[in-house]
Design goal:
This protein is an all-alpha fold. The chain has 8 helices and 2 strands, in the order E-H-H-E-H-H-H-H-H-H.
Length: 219
């Protein structure tokens, strides 16, 4: 499997830090504030839109960073899964198991049923709506990891784009026809992940340069 490594870009780290701060320090903070200090409905609405944008940024960057993988064989597929799962799956599995056991002990189920728990640890929790809270984003990312080798095949780009679009259409049809209870957020964020996988590096560099130039002009 070919991996086109590149020098770490601090711009992405800055964007991720800003997005993480917004989600943790603003969006989730509202869950812990006393009712007297809770946000107004207008503030929550604006915060929700901003949070969607932050999650879209995270999802795009996840795809963009994985675009370096070029799949040519089954060994490449296995190697890709090993690399991805070794980074976070053990912690993810422990979190899911802890929440499942905790729900049983305190009679406050975190998962709607055992089926949802099993699908969640298999990376398919997004197909048994509603997602378990907190873990929903990682459930979604795991599904994206599952299909990434297909979208990273060393084949004609137009064919890869067609397969990417085809997956989106299948998800939409499955959702609209109620074939499987797919969480709509999977459909909303999938295009950002696919865009990250497919976008040309030169386009990203141009956008970064324009942004940096604009910030310099403001200063």
């Amino acid at each position: 499997m070919e991996i086109k490594s590149k020098k770490r870009d601090s711009i992405f780290d800055i964007v991720r830090a800003i997005c993480a701060i917004e989600i943790v320090a603003f969006w989730h903070l509202s869950n812990y504030l006393p009712e007297a200090y809770s946000y107004s409905s207008q503030t929550l609405h604006v915060g929700e839109i901003i949070t969607w944008g932050c999650l879209a940024c995270f999802t795009f960057m996840s795809g963009y960073f994985l675009s370096k993988y070029k799949i040519s064989s089954w060994n490449d597929v296995i190697d890709f899964y090993k690399r991805r799962l070794s980074r976070f799956y053990v912690i993810y599995l422990l979190s899911a198991c802890s929440l499942y056991v905790g729900g049983l002990l305190f009679h406050q189920p975190f998962f709607s049923n055992t089926k949802q728990f099993i699908l969640t640890i298999l990376g398919l929790g997004c197909f048994n709506y509603p997602y378990p809270p907190t873990l929903w984003y990682f459930c979604m990312i795991m599904f994206f990891y599952l299909i990434t080798p297909l979208l990273s095949l060393r084949i004609n780009n137009m064919l890869r784009y067609t397969m990417g679009g085809g997956i989106l259409m299948i998800l939409i049809i499955v959702k609209c026809c109620n074939i499987i209870n797919v969480d709509e957020r999977l459909i909303v964020y999938y295009p950002f992940y696919a865009l990250g996988l497919f976008i040309s590096k030169s386009i990203v560099e141009k956008v970064k340069n324009i942004s940096l130039y604009s910030l310099a002009e403001l200063n």
